[in-house]
Design goal:
The protein is 44% helix and 17% strand. By secondary structure, it is α/β, with parallel strands linked by helices.
């Protein structure tokens, strides 16, 4: 069976510095351009990854949902008419809503990749998301937990990590540093992180505490730190959004992510990046995180809000070099074997090809 390059149109709500956006960028960078013609529609303009995505695609269309939520429903038809996709692959519920009906008009195969979490949506949002998941030709989730939460069948395609991003060696000298990479939103448990981090700073266990991320709660935690003494204040580095996360990870020894049972946790890019950078990952045992971390083998899991355990584990990492080397090696092996981008891209390529074969057989 021979056909021209398969035309894949990705539809995503925004191109901010978030997990699903990073995953889209990894796919765009690594998908075989000889096999696929790639287009992207985003519902918002001028965002963190906008220029990066433009350079990685043959077709790019921005719809201004921010100023007019109805207009994109009509404008998206123009994008479809220009690109004429074989396959539409969405990354969130809103993109699925905007693109589902028009994809059916163009007889495009509709892949719903909106399960990037393990329970954020509640009430009507949950029902809305599940409605379009069930309508889709195929559901792709980034975790088994996500399929369970939304009660749908589909394929699991783990987030892809390009190990070539993490070649920078640790340049922290003799300093012992920790880091967290997460947006300052209600979805993350920054209260627990800061209680543990301030105690670690007070007892001089850590030298620097790097915080990458932004959001509505950022000022709250900056003020919390400012109420400490100067010695503690100097250890905290609020960095905001950063495109070169790898550089700051290379300065650190432990990466921490605190999540909440209310909003769950999918396959976290932050945890994968910690492990790929040679850090010891410490994370709340919630949602799909146990699909990445095996406690004590390739990282550590803690109960929700257990800041004392985080404190103890960071001390343990600092004082147990031989055992920690083994855990780091196991973490790198996990990333290469389970989350390496070659494996993920091969699986995604296979999914696209199989869907096209099924479509061809159906209509011919």
């Amino acid at each position: 069976m021979v056909w021209n390059r398969i035309k894949i149109l990705y539809v995503i709500d925004c191109l901010n510095a978030g997990g699903k956006e990073r995953q889209l960028v990894e796919i765009l960078k690594n998908l075989d351009k000889n096999k696929f013609k790639i287009g992207v529609i985003t519902l918002n303009k001028n965002q963190f990854y906008t220029e990066t995505v433009k350079k990685l695609t043959e077709y790019f269309c921005e719809l201004d949902k921010y100023h007019n939520k109805v207009k994109p429903l009509f404008n998206i038809r123009k994008c479809f008419n220009e690109f004429k996709p074989d396959i539409v692959h969405t990354f969130d519920s809103l993109s699925s809503f905007y693109s589902y009906r028009v994809s059916k008009k163009y007889n495009s195969i509709f892949i719903n990749g909106s399960i990037q979490d393990a329970g954020i949506e509640k009430g009507l949002e949950y029902k809305f998301k599940r409605y379009y998941l069930k309508k889709s030709d195929l559901v792709i989730s980034n975790s088994h937990k996500g399929l369970d939460v939304y009660k749908v069948k589909g394929k699991v395609l783990y987030n892809a990590i390009d190990m070539n991003r993490f070649k920078e060696k640790n340049n922290s000298g003799n300093k012992f540093n920790i880091i967290t990479v997460a947006n300052f939103s209600e979805y993350k448990d920054y209260d627990t992180f800061f209680i543990a981090a301030i105690k670690l700073a007070q007892e001089n266990i850590v030298d620097n505490i790097y915080i990458i991320g932004s959001g509505p709660n950022e000022e709250k935690y900056k003020k919390l730190v400012q109420n400490s003494d100067d010695k503690i204040i100097s250890k905290f580095k609020f960095l905001g959004r950063k495109s070169n996360v790898e550089h700051y990870l290379s300065m650190c020894d432990v990466g921490i992510l605190c999540s909440t049972s209310e909003f769950g946790e999918g396959i976290s890019n932050s945890i994968l990046e910690y492990m790929a950078s040679g850090l010891i990952a410490v994370s709340t045992n919630i949602g799909a995180t146990k699909e990445i971390i095996i406690d004590g083998y390739n990282g550590f899991l803690v109960n929700e809000k257990d800041f004392e355990k985080i404190y103890e584990l960071v001390k343990y990492v600092k004082n147990n070099g031989i055992k920690i080397k083994e855990i780091k090696d196991n973490a790198l092996s996990t990333i290469r074997n389970k989350f390496g981008y070659e494996k993920c891209i091969d699986e995604l390529t296979g999914i696209y090809s199989d869907l096209m074969k099924e479509s061809y057989a159906k209509y011919n």
